[in-house]
Design goal:
- Chains A, B: Keywords: ATP-binding, Ligase, Nucleotide-binding, Purine biosynthesis.
- The structure is a homodimer of 376-residue chains.
- Chain A is an alpha+beta fold.
- In chain A, the strands form three sheets. In chain A, strands 10, 11, 12, 13, 14, 15, 16, 17 and 18 form a nine-stranded antiparallel beta sheet that branches. A five-stranded parallel beta sheet of chain A has the order 3-2-1-4-5, sandwiched between helices.
- In chain A, helix 1 crosses helix 10, helix 4 packs across helix 5 and helix 12 runs antiparallel to helix 13.
- Chain A is globular.
- The interface between A and B is medium-sized, with 35 and 35 residues.
Amino acid sequence: MSTVGILGGGQLARMLALAGAPLGLQFLVVDNEPSACASQVAPLLRADYRDFVALEEFAKRIDVATFDFENVPAETAQWLTEHTRVFPNPRALAVAQDRLEEKTLFHSLGLETPAFAAVDSRIDIETAVAKVGFPAVLKTRRLGYDGKGQYRLRSAADLDPAWAALGGVPLILEAWIAFEREVSVIAVRAQDGEFRTYPLTQNWHADGILSMSLAPAPQVENLSASAFAHARAVAEKLDYVGVFALELFVVDGKLLGNEMAPRVHNSGHWTIEGTACSQFENHVRAVLGLPLGDTTAIGSSVMFNWIGSLPDARPVLAESRAHWHDYGKTSRAGRKVGHATLCAADNIEMSRRLARVARALDREAQAAPVLEALQR
Amino acid sequence: MSTVGILGGGQLARMLALAGAPLGLQFLVVDNEPSACASQVAPLLRADYRDFVALEEFAKRIDVATFDFENVPAETAQWLTEHTRVFPNPRALAVAQDRLEEKTLFHSLGLETPAFAAVDSRIDIETAVAKVGFPAVLKTRRLGYDGKGQYRLRSAADLDPAWAALGGVPLILEAWIAFEREVSVIAVRAQDGEFRTYPLTQNWHADGILSMSLAPAPQVENLSASAFAHARAVAEKLDYVGVFALELFVVDGKLLGNEMAPRVHNSGHWTIEGTACSQFENHVRAVLGLPLGDTTAIGSSVMFNWIGSLPDARPVLAESRAHWHDYGKTSRAGRKVGHATLCAADNIEMSRRLARVARALDREAQAAPVLEALQR
């Protein structure tokens, strides 16, 4: 019986462990937080990611290590490769951790991105703005997620406050893009190089955090092949093993690379019920060298993200083909505490179901753009 | 956050805990066996079912108690009702534990059964045989499962050896029935009386243990309504809450009651992937008073039971819409150690998938009757 070690004990680790249990796998989660929600379904090794004594115990107890948290220190990922098998590899992790390296990689592989420039000092911002223009977004190169570590620049007057807010760590200035849509590729690559993608997912954000996903994304006939080819090129370049997400903007009907997440991803949660083999099961299969599973969508799926606190579960539980996911966390503003997925045979049935659930939960504004996309 | 207590820590408890985790539930399993396989996914309270000191701790830590093991002592179930909420209720459990009470109940509700008679002494066998005839099966009234505690009677010569093997506990003699088919109803009843059934499942046994299930059972148009009505009558009579199975024989196109299992059931494992809300999730919903979930079948499902040891998982993992379930147990003759479920859009796709998997696993004999039923 194999044991999979996971660095990070959040909802992603929790859903990995739940997906792996039917395969007869055991899990061991490392997290510094005793209440890490994955510890409700898998044993927890409470330790800091730089506690190499604890990590030695971790490495001894597992067969392979993987990540729920993408910002594990580079030296930890490297150290682990010397003590156990690690997927994805530390280089892939390092590239995905750094917005500048990530975008540079995209460019080298022919995937265009919004204009960007490195910013390492106050004076660099002027040069970067000259290249990128306004509006733009100044971002930390590392450790940013869900809209954190970002400052929007509308004019020269924003430069000083932006530097005051973020200066002192490596930054990147990116052109602010008025995109038509945001889509993501959830892909999985096996140790033998086999590569599979789930159907393209369309995503909507609120306050920088994913709010809703719809899969398969509608009207992407002209985009899917290109999106999948880009994801494959990235995965092969990094010799990536496991599941990852590639977030893309659609601008004037063309794809621009936004970022990649070197792990299972919030925009792929719909795969739990919307496909025969979820992103979580496929990630576990990939890191263990098992055959990859079916990534075909079974009908249409819509995911609601629950941020801060959970709404009443009953209207979702009472609906047909509706699935509730409570991560077992306490409520806190901005925190991802759960999600719900609605499944349906087709977009017409989905529209009805979604409208009914949104009304019952008083979430009509949240669901409105998805309903609009379904009816187009 | 609610905690569900489960008496018994086998694969049923394991699958209940895995189904309940996404609902944000916690579980606590009582089992005397430290290696009980449910303990890999939920906390274990190691105790005997008659250890009332341990049960007091158990009752304090949970919100509701239910069962993975139907043969929990009656006094334990009764004691629990005085210390916590318990579903199903002890009377339902007691009736289902005793083959004589069970069959007597079926009769009282208009569900015919094979002829039967109580046997409490050696002399009773003669009277029972006079009533039931040969061939017949002498069975213990309590604690029998998977063909254990049974002795087949072909002629008067078998009476002494049968009594020698089983005598000393309350017995029942049942007519041995050459049934055409065996089907089961998996049903769920809520605390408010709402009642739902999954489509009828057809089952095949080998050596008294379930070997294969096919759902929805083919050609049951004339049987389903009657089977569901019998299940409902039994549930209402017992004020049953939760999931249960009613096993039925089809003889000359008519239904005969065989037995009921007051718990989630092996012949309902296909519901994990074959429906939007599995028997495990629906049982948890029922005992917690949550709305019941959708019991409609999504396409066709076939379950292989793995007895004794697991075959190679890879041919199943490599197939589309095929699902592997390893219970995390060690191998042992006659032990249920896992199952696999194949799903398909229709019977034609299922026939191809099933034939391919059976061939790859060298299980063509096991799968043959299911293939035949699919092609009829």
